[in-house]
Amino acid sequence: MYNYLNNKFNNSSKKVKIEIYLLTLVLFFVFFLIIEDYNKSNTITKIQNSFKLPNQTFTGSFFDLSKELEIYAKNKKIKITKIENQKRVINIE
């Protein structure tokens, strides 16, 4: 079977050989892109799931909380661009 396919390939024209090589390359790249996209979507889902926190009521001082967040971010080298408190909701960017 292998010899038959090998002989068929060797006796085929250059055009057919090029098409076979290009087809395998295209299939490889398509497969690679699908796997890469699948891995990215799984990573994003895992990150989103890890940051889900339960809703809690905050009774402390917003100023103290923002100060503690800034100190923590500075120690962990995290850049915080904005901290807002609107209608009992804290938004951190």
Low-confidence stretches: none
**Widest β-sheet, arrangement of strands:** 1-2
- Tell me the count of domains: 2
Oligomer status = single chain
Helix-strand category? mainly alpha
Tally of DSSP helical segments: 3
Mean pLDDT: 77
The fraction of residues assigned to DSSP E strands is 5-15%
Task: Give the C-alpha Rg.
Answer: 28 Å
* Overall form: rod-shaped
List the helices and strands in order.
HHHEE
**Biggest beta sheet attributes:** 2 strands, antiparallel
Q: Please give the share of residues in helix.
A: 55-70%
The strand count comes to 2
Distance between the termini: 63 Å
What would you say this structure looks like, in words?
- The protein has 3 helices and 2 strands.
- The chain has 93 residues and is mostly helical.
- The protein has 2 domains: 1-52; 55-93, no CATH class.
- It has a two-stranded antiparallel sheet.
- Strand 1 and strand 2 (89-92) form a beta hairpin.
- The radius of gyration is 28 Å and the shape is rod-shaped.
SSE blueprint and pairings:
Layout: H1 2-11, H2 14-50, H3 62-76, E1 83-86, E2 89-92
Antiparallel strand pairs: 1-2
Attribute tags:
2 domains, 3 helices, single chain, 93 residues, mainly alpha
